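Journal club side-thread
Mid-discussion, someone asked how the predicted structure for our own chain would compare to the paper's figures. Pasting it here so we can look after the session.
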Amino acid sequence: MAATVVKSINVGAIDTVPCGITFDGKDLWWIGQANKMINHMDRRGHLIKQIAVGAIDTSPLGITFDGKDLWWIGYSNDIINHMDRRGKLIEQIAVGAIDTIPCGITFDGKDLWWIGLTNKMVNHMDRSGKLIEQFPVAAIDATPIGITFDGKDLWWIGFTNKMINHMDRTGKLIEQFSVAAIDTTPHDITFDGKDFWWIGTQHASIYHMTRS
């Protein structure tokens, strides 16, 4: 199976350090770490609104959508933040006891899956904060950072090897796609029901990727 980038959207005018990205069924939401904003943007690249989150965490990184609300990770405070789409904070889950550098996060329709950079684990957790299981991924990439769910499997970004890694929910690696020729600093990935969108900081861009 091949993967092809069909479009890129430069977002450097909005934020020079785009990190986390998610899809809400219609639009994209992405985190800009320079300005500490969650940015709501359509798939053509038009900015709809912004939510300032720097007062909650100075290092926002990963973000996901649960069908209604946003969940985003800030690694300054080792917190997963549950927030509605208007920017109202609903709850916070401390995860520092599991990993002190939480990064990417995704939702599988029921539970949360997030990556911890210190222990290099994919962590499966329910929405109350209970850890269900963990999968080590350091042997695949020493710097796991972003993650998404495609309805069946997990896809995560390896920053060291510049790879998108396709893995089942038992931790088995299925396939890998190199993105080094496109962006040398990939950070996060999301799935829109058909295609993938991933974000890289080298060119401050969002990339639309198809599979064939």
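Post-session note: The chain has a mean pLDDT of 96.
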